[in-house]
Specification:
The chain is an alpha+beta fold and 350 residues long. Helices cover 40% and strands 12% of the residues.
Amino acid sequence: MDTKQLAADIRIWAAELGFDKLAITDTDLGRHPEYLERWLAAGRQASMDWMQRHADLRAAPARLVPGTIRILSARMHYAPPEDDPLAVLQRGDLAYISRYALGRDYHKVVRPRLAKLAARIDAAVGGAGFRAFSDSAPVLEKAIAEKSGLGWIGKNTLLLSRDAGSLFFLGEIFTDLPLPVDEADPRDHCGSCHACLDVCPTDAFVGPRELDAGRCIAYLTIEHRGAIPEDLRPLMGNRVFGCDDCQLVCPWNKFARTTAEDDFHPRHALEASDLVELFSWTEAEFLERTAGSAIRRTGYSGWLRNLAVALGNAPQSARIVAALRARRDEVDPMVREHVDWALARQCEPC
């Protein structure tokens, strides 16, 4: 088998399937498992207990998929076209949704494409083992991508690329094929820049490359299932699902590329929707309009909770007060707490 030619062919096939770039590495993740262990020991994972339960598999890819000797790491752009996220953030009456979640759930796009790529490789060589992942198993995706040469992990803990910024999804194929590995650039290209650390609305960064998930708006609005700490609510602004601030200020994202995937284009005008309108959705409307979307992850109660916080942070408005009062008695107690908080904010000093 000419593995060098096969690796070249794989890159061509990956591009045909919509991947911007693909690189190959081995299973030695260097310092990253030790960093993960320290991060977990410090309790930075908040309520994400699954990070701890599967830490051993994250640290050793060959344990997750026995026989793995190579990992193919691929990226796919998601930045929507003609988008002005900063303008939405500056409009307190609009809902800000992280740009990765405006279209189809990436799990439903990236992993199936990787499975197709694996099937094509298998058809070419036969008898090899493959497993495809995209945020769908205990995998240190950013560590693998950095090791493969797709970029470096920046101070905001995201993978950065000098030619593509950070607005892309990652996915992997684990295989037992002895493919040639790519040489990574070990340099950190963040330099003295700390814009991402400074801009974080909730001061979630303990330091460069160390995030306290319990203070991160992405965690609070997506993974967290209970009440949002009251001291953090005013800091969240109009961010109702995720947060992109640390990416929006990153100088490397001047090289971010608009997605070529129609699946990642915004649906239902969610790139700049009215907060009151979204808060009025019934559960049936929520399920209908978030079908196939990553927004489903927060659940209907989480969605209303997040919107209530954003409405409390919005400029005072009789329309907002009326919307909050109209739904107060029909929402569950957890959401009602946030509605009452929002009403108190909207009615000050009345």
